[in-house]
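Q&A FORM
Asked by: J.P.
Topic: structure of BPL1 ligase

PROVIDED:
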Amino acid sequence: DIELRLKWPNDIYYSDLMKIGGVLVNSTLIETTFHILIGFGFNVNNSNPTICINDLIAKFNREEGTELKPLSADCLIARTVTVLERLIEIFQEKGPNGVLPQYYKYWVHSGQQVRLGSEQGALAWVVGIDDYGFLQVHQEGRGVESVHPDGNSFDMLRNLIVPK
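REPLIED BY: S.T.
REPLY: Here is the structure written out as C-alpha cells.
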C-alpha cells in the first residue's frame, strides 16, 4: 500500500514526487538465444538527500497504525528477484500483454499532459507504451506517436518531452 510508482523508462518513484530507485536492462541476441541482464537499485536506508523505502514504511506505520518492519537490503533483493522471476515467466507465456496491465497500474504517466519539444510546443497526452517499450503520446490531429528515449527525455517537473 505504499505509493511506489514507475516513471518511464526506468525509474521507481515515491508517488510522483521523488526517485527512490531504478532499473537498467541490457539485452543481446546471440544466434537463437536472447540474453537479458537486469540491474536494479533501491534507496533502502539513506534518508538524505530525498527519502528511502524505510522512511516510507515508518510514515505508513504512523499514518495507518501498523507495525511493518523496516526492510533490510538483502530482504528487498530477495523479494524483488522473486517477483521478477514471476514476471519473466508471465512475459514468456503471454508476451508484453501479460505484464503491461500490472505495469500501468503503478506508472505515473496515465493521462498525463505534456508539451513536445519546448514549453510552448504542441500539447500531447501520454497514452501508453508501444511494442518496443517506447513511450506513446497522443497529439490532437496527429494521432499516437512513439517517443524514443535515445532522442528525448521526460522532464516531470515541467511535464515536457524535450530533445536531448
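FOLLOW-UP: The mean pLDDT is 87.
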